[in-house]
Amino acid sequence: MFFYLIDVFGTMAFAISGVLTAINKKMDPFGVFVIAFVTAVGGGTLRDVLIGRSPVGWMRDLNYVYVIIAGFFLAVIFRKKLDKLRTSLFFFDTIGLGVFTLIGLEKGLEINLHPVICVALGTMTACFGGVTRDILCNEIPVIFRKEIYATICILGGCVFFLLKALHVPDGLLYILTSGVIIATRLMAVVFKWSLPPLSRD
Amino acid sequence: MFFYLIDVFGTMAFAISGVLTAINKKMDPFGVFVIAFVTAVGGGTLRDVLIGRSPVGWMRDLNYVYVIIAGFFLAVIFRKKLDKLRTSLFFFDTIGLGVFTLIGLEKGLEINLHPVICVALGTMTACFGGVTRDILCNEIPVIFRKEIYATICILGGCVFFLLKALHVPDGLLYILTSGVIIATRLMAVVFKWSLPPLSRD
Amino acid sequence: MFFYLIDVFGTMAFAISGVLTAINKKMDPFGVFVIAFVTAVGGGTLRDVLIGRSPVGWMRDLNYVYVIIAGFFLAVIFRKKLDKLRTSLFFFDTIGLGVFTLIGLEKGLEINLHPVICVALGTMTACFGGVTRDILCNEIPVIFRKEIYATICILGGCVFFLLKALHVPDGLLYILTSGVIIATRLMAVVFKWSLPPLSRD
Fold it and tell me: Which residues in B lie closer than 8 A to residue C50 (C-beta atoms)?
C-alpha cells in the first residue's frame, strides 16, 4: 500500500515534469498531455514490451491514467507558480526514480532474468520516460548530457543485489535500495556531481 | 469488405503523406520508402506491440505492404503534381483517421480493455504513424503543435462508447463514429479550429 | 560457432560506431554507453518485439552485454586513435551488416513469415540500431540520406530467397548471402555508389 502510494507520487511527478517541458516548447494542450503521459508511463511501457508482459502496465490499472490526468491539470493550473515549486517537484521526481528502479528490478526477478539484465530493466523503467519526453520535444535526452541520473539507478541496482546476496529481508531491501538512490541523487544535485563529457582532445 | 477497402485507402493516404514529408527532407528513395511505410503502419504496430498481438498486423497480411508500395510509386511519380492533389490527399487522410481510430477501438474491446484505454488505443492507431514520421524527419510532431488532430480521435472514441451504451447496432455504430471523426476534421480545417498553445505568460 | 563469433564481431563493431557518434555529441560516459548499447542491440530488439519473441534477445544471452561493455571500453580508450582505425571499423561494421541481415531473415523463417516480411525483418535487424543511434543524437538517420546501406540488405534478402528456391544447402546459402551483402557494401563505398535524393524540381 505504501509502495503503491509512492508509485503514484512518482508517476504524478514525472507527468508534471512532462507538462513543464512541453509548455516550454509551446505545444497545444493535447501535445502537453501526451508528453505528460509518455514521460510518466514510457519507462514501464518499454520494460513491459521488452519482457513480453502484455497488455502493458497502464492498460491494466486505470489508476495510472487518472493520476496522470490529475497531474496534468495540476501542472497546467499552477504552471505560473511551478518555478517556485521546483524543489518539491524535484523531490517527487527523485522519489519516483527510486521507486521506478525498484519496480523494474522486481519485474526482472519475477521472470528469472540475470541480475545484470534486471539492473538494466530498473534503469530503463526509471529513465526511459524522460528520454522519450526529450525525443518528442526534439532535444538530445538530458540524461545523456548533464546529470548523473541513470548512473544512480545502476548504482541502486548494484546495492539491491548486494543486499539480496546478504539475505536482507524484502521490506528492508526495498527501503535501503530506494534510500540509496534518493540520497545519492540529492547529494549529486546539492554538490553538483556530474560525469565529464568524453571528448576526443 | 467495404471496411477493408477504406482501410486500404487510409493506409495508402498515410503512405503518400509520408512520401511527401520525406521528399521535402531531401531523403534518398529508400529513406522515402521507409518513412512512407512507417507513417502507414506505425500506429497499428505500436498498438499491436502494446497489447501483445504478435507478429504485428502488417506481418500477417501482405496486402498492407503492397498498398504501401503502390502508394510510394504513385506519390513518387506524381510528386510534382501532388500539390494540386492536396485536397484529395487530405480527404483520404481524413478517412484514414476515422477508420484507424475505429480499428484501434475494436482491437481494445476484443481483449476486454477499459473504454478509456480503448480510446487511447484508437487515438494511437490513428496518430502514431504521423508522430514517427515527424521524429524520423527530426521535427517536433505536427500533431502536438498545429492542428486538432488527435483530439478529434478522442472525441470519436467518446461518441463510439456513448452510442454503444445506447445499444446502437454495430454497422450504424461504425458509420456514425467514423462519420463524426471525418466531419469534425473537415470542419476543423475549413474553420481553422485549433487549440491555443499553453504558454506560461 | 563461426556464425556466433561473427555475430559477436558485428555487435562489437556496432557498439564502437555508437561510441564514436556519441562522443562527437559531447555526451557523458553513461550517455555514450547507452548509445553504444542501443546501436548494437536496437535492430534485434525491434525485430523481437515485432514478432513477439520475448524477453528480447539480449536479455537471454548475457554475452551480448559483455561484448558491448568490452567494445565500449575499447572505443573509449582508443578514441583518439580510432580515426586511423576507421578502415577496420568499417570492415567489422560491414560484416555485422551481412550477419545481422541473415539472422533477421532466419528468425522470420522460423515463425513462417512470408519472404517479403522476412526481408523487412532482416533489413530492420541490420539497420534499426543505427537509426535509433541517430535519433537519440538528434539527427536525421544517416541511412535515409547518404549511403545505400539498407538497400543492400534488401538486395541480400532477395539473393537469400533466390538461392533458397534453388535448393542451395544452408551453409553455402549463409556464406553466399552475407558475401553478397559484404561485397556490395565494399564496392558501394569504394565506387561511391549512392541513391540520388528524390527532389521535386
Answer: 45, 49, 54-56, 59
